[in-house]
Amino acid sequence: MGHIEGFLKIQRQEQQGRPVAERLRDFNEVYEAPSEELVIEQGARCMDCGIPYCHVACPLGNFIPFWNDRVSEGDWRQALEQLQRENNFPEFTGQLCPALCEGSCSLSLGFEPVTIRLIERQVIEHGFAQGWVVPEPPQTLTGKRVAVVGSGPAGLAAAQQLRRMGHEVTVFERDQQIGGLLRYGIPDFKLEKQIIDRRLAQLEAEGVQFMPGVHVGVSMPVEELCQGFDAILLAAGAQHPRDLPVPGRDLAGIHFAMEYLTQQNRRCAGEVIEPEVAIDAKGRHVLVIGGGDTGADCVGTALRQGAASVTSFELMPEPPNERAPDNPWPEWPRVLRKSSSHEEGGERIYSVLTRRLLGDGNGQVAAAAAVRVSWQRDEHGQWRMEELEDTAFTQPCDLVLLALGFSGPIRHGMIEQLGVALSANGAVATDANKMTSRPGVFAAGDMSRGQSLVVWAIAEGRTAAEGINQFLMDGS
Ligand SMILES: Cc1cc2nc3c(=O)[nH]c(=O)nc-3n(C[C@H](O)[C@H](O)[C@H](O)COP(=O)(O)OP(=O)(O)OC[C@H]3O[C@@H](n4cnc5c(N)ncnc54)[C@H](O)[C@@H]3O)c2cc1C
């Protein structure tokens, strides 16, 4: 480790967003690329602390102190080689990950954590710019055929690993474009889509085959897959939206967040949305019900579309600014975070329960009736919600976006036809090798974990690839 006092002398510096007024005029990425000098300096803040909790907290087991050190010495090539050993797509996590690693960085005990995510992003961008990220096709082929269903980060990570092991890999995707939620859920201002295309070109050059527009279990019977392939990976996500079963739910102007976000991503890709189904926030008073990444992405999208106002309702209380005593380091800090979208505008209201949605008399939503709630722990330590007296209020709104999360994978079709067992949370149950109750059928990502994160999807895809390889090669 070259900079023994780096963390004492250098302050944490995060990536800078473009000015709000400028970025609200487009859907381009919010953050500006940092200078290499800044990233080298930030790498020198890593203490190489001996027991790297950052490494443990990362679902991929990224060997972070090593690449921090290499970056601080300006050795981008070795940093990249190490980074790519554990992570197929550092450009996705470098832009999207909440950085579980930074929450566990030893430096955060008395200082600000190392900007690990920023460094990761710059290492991979440097690698692409230098032409160091090249296809790595297999040297020998096994003759085994694997079908991957779903082209989100889990399916793509598994496909790349399996191909590099020498298997013939075909990825089936129900949408017309490859990428899963990276393509159609996450807005361009968080992840521009040429970042996905750049990586897909590498997978294609390695020999991964893509079959977009194939809805397994609907347009293609599951048995066709079972007969044509030696193993199957289900990486079809957990996109069954959680609904809000309150009176007035059937009024016009109320949509699931994903319907709304997908449309905008399609527009950004140059597609035309039919006027009769288009959802547009321009001039509307928007109410986003539900916090989290999806809710924040709705806020940013509505502001860019020119909403008259954007309000978010969150059922849970506002998190504290600092760690609570029952949330010590190195746990993930449950503290208040401001996404780039929340920096841009809109109001966030916490501890609020939506009781009903009210119409304008013509079948169009016009307001939400809500009440404030308080949260207390009961004698078993479980959180209990209580409505507060005399706090009922009405929030005017003519566009409501439901961002209440996802209740699990869509069961109708592929899952039902395969008859695989489900776990208590409704996701597809697997063993430690990611094999489901049906031999030769594996599951990974949100499909087996429930709604989660990109970093977990990549990690699960890699674990599933190992499991499939073992299954196919019978331990050899
Ligand atoms: C709006 C939004 C914002 C998010 N923001 C972040 C973020 O900032 N950071 C972060 O870490 N995570 C974020 N997430 C979560 C993250 O996107 C997911 O955890 C991750 O994409 C899961 O990857 P996956 O490969 O398991 O599934 P998905 O990305 O959901 O991909 C599954 C794919 O399978 C396809 N499919 C489904 N059924 C079939 C079938 N029967 N046949 C063929 N194809 C099928 C789907 O069309 C889809 O393309 C966000 C999620 C949403 C919804």
From TrEMBL:
Keywords: Amino-acid biosynthesis, Glutamate biosynthesis, Oxidoreductase
GO molecular function: glutamate synthase (NADPH) activity; iron-sulfur cluster binding; oxidoreductase activity, acting on the CH-NH2 group of donors, NAD or NADP as acceptor
Keyword Amino-acid biosynthesis: yes
PROSITE patterns per UniProt: 4FE4S_FER_2
GO biological process entries: glutamate biosynthetic process
Domain of life: Bacteria
Key word Amino-acid biosynthesis present: yes
Residues in 4Fe-4S ferredoxin-type domain copies: 36-69
EC number: 1.4.1.13
Coiled coil residues, start to end: none
Gene3D superfamilies named among the record's database cross-references: Alpha-helical ferredoxin, FAD/NAD(P)-binding domain, NAD(P)-binding Rossmann-like Domain
Name of the featured protein: Glutamate synthase
Taxonomic lineage of the native organism: Bacteria, Bacillati, Chloroflexota, Chloroflexia, Chloroflexales
